[in-house]
Task: structure prediction
Amino acid sequence: MAISDRVLRYLGSTKNIAGSALGLLGLGAHFLGLAGAYWPVVVAGLYGVGALLAPPERVRLTISHAEVEVRQLRADLDTLLRRIDGRFPADVHAAVHGLAEVLGGVLGRAEQLTSSPDELHVVSQTIRSYLPASLESYANLPRGYALTRRADRERSAHEELLAQLALLDAQLRKVADAIHRGDEQALRDQGRFLQDRFGGSDLDL
Result:
């Protein structure tokens, strides 16, 4: 594992969170004039205490169903992106890659995503059905026809595709918000745990 990966894993670990919480308590004591001239030592010491008291990270060697499902979805998304490369106008490519960025963030939360069937359904159908169907229908049209607005239509096929991509983007951002609200709730739960264990804290959320 690369050093950067180890650093990122530690930054998100329970030990770092607990140590940081106590370190902030020491920093708060400094601003209140309680830590004296040795406040850096107090902050570092409290961080160390928090890191030592925090439960160790659980070792997990098995591959969860969530990881298997999300890994396949990510592979399907990558395959789709390769297939459309160079086949569409620049604005369509930009919209699709914007969608892919949102999807990538959601797929990075495998356990949260697969624990919510509604959100998982939207993501799965977007990657495997909604997005490919919209792109395929457009790709099968002659380029000149796709870009021309017909008298009996409100918008051209090109504009219709962009509108569909915008609808998918809006829905996926709702899914991402739901996933991140779950992460925020986990942070709040951790704050309540630390408050119960160590007393009042400036970290109350």
Q: What stands out?
A: Residues 3-59 form one domain.
